[in-house]
Amino acid sequence: MKKTSALILIGSILFLTMCIRDTYSPNACFQEDVLPIFISNCTFSECHNSKEKESGFDLTTYAGIMKGITAKHPLRSEIYNTIKGSNPSMPESPYSKLSKKDVYTIKAWIQMGAKNTSNCKGCDTINFTYSARVKPLIQTWCTGCHNSSNPGGGFDLSDYNGVVSSIANNKLLGSLKHLSGFSAMPKNAGQLSSCDITAIQKWISAGNPNN
Ligand code: HEC
Predict the structure, then answer these.
(1) Is the C-alpha dihedral spanning 103, 210, 186, 55 positive or negative?
(2) Which of 183, 188, 194, 204 is the pocket-test mutation for ligand 1 (most atoms within 8 Å of CB)?
(3) Whose CA is nearest to atom 2 of ligand 1?
(4) What is the tens place of the pLDDT at every residue in 189-207?
């Protein structure tokens, strides 16, 4: 009887661990999953961008981020130690701390060797709905700088209405395509992949449905 309970307990723990692992996708790709967390949460003006390099850190590039990372060893990585735990020192107030999911993504990427990987998932050329394609993309790359308490340029892109308001006057596509007359977005980063820009363009051409 005791043995069975112990086995059930161990089984449940293993099962729960697997669930958490799955939700947090440990196979993070640097360019698509890890870099946007840094760009969107750490590179505000006066912070860790290529111009100001606060505390010596430019977190807009792989080389810059690797200055604070020891591959395979999150706890020996200066950057990881500033974002982990219940009371992390970074990002500094008034900016929001990283979500648990983002901290886990960075930790998993360090544990897997902190490689400069890209295009891990291939291009989805079929699905361009708001909920499955546009929203996750904007949450990954943009909302750290475009939320209700920090609406960069006046734009809060954290919900559907906010994203729709940025479409007017071609602002959203103009800034994503780095056209002249618009501020190039995501700020402090290169252009999104053509796969991602095409998905947003297709969604807008379809009448930007809330689907
Ligand atoms: C590091 C912070 C940051 C990130 C990341 C960022 N933005 Fe911005 N965004 C700003 C700021 C600040 C402005 C105001 C103009 C300026 O300073 O360039 C702005 C302006 C804009 C504008 C108005 C452009 C214009 O020409 O009037 C749009 C649209 C926009 N952002 C969309 C986006 C989208 C979409 C993303 C993600 C793909 C994104 N931004 C990522 C900070 C950011």
Answers:
(1) negative
(2) 183
(3) 145
(4) 999 999 999 999 999 999 9
